[in-house]
Amino acid sequence: MIFFYFCIKLTQKSILNPLIGTYECKVDAKGRLMIPVALKKQFGESEATFVLKRSVFQPCLELYSMDEWNKMMTEINKLNRFVKKNNDFIRRFTAGVKVIEIDSTGRLLIPKDLVVFAKIDKEVVLSSAVSIVEIWDKELYENAIDDSAQDFSDLAEEVMGNFNFDEDGIS
């Protein structure tokens, strides 16, 4: 319940400048990925340091700007570490976390252990997810989208059906 609360809280803060777009890219043999210019502009020109981690729910990676990561860690640090469940969550959530930088040519190096986790081959999809970017192996991404297409209407109703939006909200 606490985790759900701060995820919603973070999403509300981040929704002011949500990331937009899905991009297909190539990864070279060393795990280097060229960040698309349109996505780089959304992060801002000064943003060169990021946090890359394993996704909790999917076989993909999550790319956080340092600002978004710090917001997330501020909320996670509010959890009482003397509660075993909280401590286990923190350990698992931060497992495999790496600080990475975009090099002078605009490439991001995905560490080998994260390449293996996400089963990244040569083609990847970068998919915006409000305030973060998911990095998927292209085939796994397409399978996840195809598999979830049938269930999406039920999921949308379950997740969003009880929200009451104001006059300029979604209808």
Describe the structure.
With 171 residues, the chain is an alpha+beta fold. 40% of the residues lie in helices and 23% in strands. The protein has helices spanning 2-14, 37-43, 66-76, 84-93, 112-117, 138-149, 152-160, and strands at 22-26, 32-34, 49-54, 61-65, 98-101, 107-109, 123-129, 132-137. A six-stranded antiparallel sheet has the order 1-7-8-4-3-5. The longest helix is centred in the first third of the chain and has 13 residues, at 2-14. The protein is globular, with a radius of gyration of 17 Å. The model is unreliable at 1-15 (pLDDT under 50).
Gist?
The protein has 171 residues and is an alpha+beta fold.
| Helical amount | 25-40%
Count of helix runs: 7
Biggest sheet layout: 6 strands, antiparallel
- Give the amount of beta strand, in percent: 15-25%
Task: Name the overall outline.
Answer: globular
What value does the average pLDDT take? 82
Distance between the termini: 27 Å
Spell out the helices and strands N to C: HEEHEEHHEEHEEHH
